[in-house]
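Possible regression after last week's pipeline update?

I re-ran a chain I had predicted before the update to compare outputs. Posting the input and the new output here so someone can diff against the archived version. Not blocking, just want to make sure nothing changed silently.
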Amino acid sequence: MATLTHPSARTGPRTPARSPGTLPALRHLGPNWYAAVMGTAIVANAGAALSPPLPGPRGAYVVVWALSAVLLLVLLAARSVHWLRHTDQARRHLLDPAVAPFYGCLAMALLAVGGGTLAVGPDVLGERTAVAADAVLWCAGTATGLAAAAAVPYLMVARHRIETGTASPVWILPLVAPMVSAALGPGLVPHLPAGQWRAAMLLACHAMFGMSLLATLLVLPLVLARLIHHGPLPLALTPTLFLVLGPLGQSATAVNNLADAAPGTVGAGYAQAMSGFALLYGVPVMGFALLWLALATALVVRAFRAGMTFSMTWWAFTFPVGTCVTGAAGLARHTGLTAFTWLAVGLFAVLVAAWLVAGARTALGLARGQLLVPPARPAAPTVPAQPVSAPAPARP
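New output (post-update):
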């Protein structure tokens, strides 16, 4: 994969030569490409979540959502061909600890496009079709996300060889997928039959919220410890620091959306408790998200000064920031504070700028044939020969 430039342990056999008739351009198309779908869909979702909406045509969000849907269909087809024609490479991706976590992106791409279908899709599809499409995408994304949340950690424990000090924010990707389901599931609650169906959906989303939150809390200390003890990430991976914003902003979005869906679904006391929890949880977490945003931005600026160039990891600047937009917009709804509204608008401006840059650079890289090439293999280090009798250097 062209986006993962750091060496990692690989457990699979050496890649055999390609047979005639295969598609070499797709051989190195990894699951990380779904991040482009996520980053595109979140622009429409975040824009629709702003209250009051920004001045401008709502049709712009519809166009962006439609683009994300087309990208999803194209990638699903391309990845299917990848698994059929390049099965050996697909298996190597699963056995590579640097690549396997990106399978969480497939789930989040399905969920993000589904959320956009419900948010702005009715303008084109009609409400019934939009709800049905979102239901299908939510179910598929949730099933895929739960599978990734269990399978990827299993592979990391049982099959991957992970060296000390190599913790990466990428590890969060399969763990945050159930949180996306928890944040977008409440939108379907009003369309379910009243009673057991709605209550079950709401509580299932709460369960996925807890599942993702607790798993993320186990990984975040590893990421911070890696930064403190081993220094900044390699230049190409520095943008992945923004991935930490994903579970933070998405969890704030989830508690607010769950509170919106609670009245009439569960008892009045529980609904009131959920509304209070949305503030007691969402505000502190949004504060920590802003702290991490400052740290990640400083390290990205440092990487730019050190010569960081474009890679597909730049898509990490989009979806995580978008979740903070929806989280801040949810807090604005529940508190009535203009400060949260302005925070959401400011983060949305950052999101749009990041999406335009990442999208343009990706299109340019594809046109130049630079993004679907084999990853460069690090050259074996050469150690200069030294005389046997050379004295060892004195320790300071």
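Follow-up from reviewer: compared with the archived run. Confidence is low (pLDDT under 50) at residues 1-23, 377-396. Marking as no regression found.
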